[in-house]
């Protein structure tokens, strides 16, 4: 059955360019097409009051909102046969450090919920696609979104990358109190900067919000 689903690369999958390119390439290689593809900086009220509202009473809610609104995010409406379940299988379990390494989150996600991307599940796909199309995404009929996705991959697929295990080692050292949080911020900022073409302020904010999410 042909379906549509919403996927967006979270800031750790957008600011880290190679990771985002690998995510998009996996969808292209699977034969999916794009009804929309582009970078969007989502409105904080929309993300808290609509997209993530069901988690409003959870301790991770506020750090999540701060994180996903800290930078533009690569946003996609992906179309294909059984696309919802196939993409969910490709990305793997929620916690990236526990996801198999042959899944996208296992290979490119950083730690726990700092997990590369959001992808709608079977229950939420139709609702999320409609909500984002109505309130966030402005479709341009003159744009070829499949071409834009391919150009994005071509631009960033050979971008410098840092092995995800380096990030996870540093995070574990911080959680084990072998290094201070401030030391992790400095080191992680340096690593992300190597993987990014975003400005330093965005990289700094993304770094801080990644760490806040891990600690929440």
Break the fold down into its secondary structure elements and pairings.
Blueprint (H helix, E strand, L loop, with lengths): L1 E8 L1 H4 L2 H13 L3 E8 L3 H8 L9 H8 L4 E9 L1 H9 L12 H5 L8 E3 L5 H11 L9 H12 L7 H12 L5 H14 L5 H16 L1
Antiparallel strand pairs: 1-3, 1-4, 2-3
Structural write-up:
It is a single chain. This protein is an alpha+beta fold and 216 residues long. The chain has two domains: 2-156, Alpha-Beta Plaits (2-Layer Sandwich), CATH 3.30.70.141; 164-215, no CATH class. The chain is built from eleven helices and four strands. Helix 4 runs antiparallel to helix 11 (200-215). The radius of gyration is 16 Å and the shape is globular. The model has no long low-confidence stretch (mean pLDDT 96).
Summarize the structure.
This protein is an alpha+beta fold. It has helices at 11-14, 17-29, 44-51, 61-68, 83-91, 104-108, 125-135, 145-156, 164-175, 181-194, 200-215; strands at 2-9, 33-40, 73-81, 117-119.
Q: What's the CATH class label of the largest domain? A: Alpha Beta
- Beta-strand percent range: 5-15%
Q: Structural class, judged by helices and strands? A: alpha+beta
Shape: globular
The total domain count is 2
């Amino acid at each position: 059955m042909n379906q549509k689903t919403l996927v967006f690369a979270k800031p750790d999958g957008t600011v880290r360019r190679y990771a985002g390119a690998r995510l998009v390439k996996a969808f292209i290689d699977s034969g999916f097409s794009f009804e929309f593809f582009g970078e969007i900086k989502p409105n904080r009220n929309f993300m808290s009051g609509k997209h993530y509202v069901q988690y409003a009473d959870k301790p991770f809610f506020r750090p999540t909102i701060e994180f996903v609104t800290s930078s533009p995010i690569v946003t996609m409406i992906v179309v294909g046969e059984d696309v919802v379940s196939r993409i969910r299988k490709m990305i793997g379990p929620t916690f990236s450090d526990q996801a198999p390494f042959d899944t996208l989150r296992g290979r490119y996600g950083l730690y726990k919920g700092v997990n590369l991307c959001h992808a709608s599940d079977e229950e939420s796909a139709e609702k999320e696609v409609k909500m984002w199309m109505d309130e966030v995404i402005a479709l341009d009929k003159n744009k070829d979104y499949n071409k834009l996705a391919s150009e994005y991959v071509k631009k960033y697929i050979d971008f410098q990358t840092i092995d995800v295990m380096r990030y996870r080692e540093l995070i574990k050292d911080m959680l084990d109190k072998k290094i201070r949080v401030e030391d992790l911020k400095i080191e992680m900022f340096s690593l992300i900067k190597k993987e990014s073409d975003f400005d330093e302020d965005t990289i700094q904010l993304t770094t801080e919000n990644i760490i806040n999410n891990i600690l929440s």
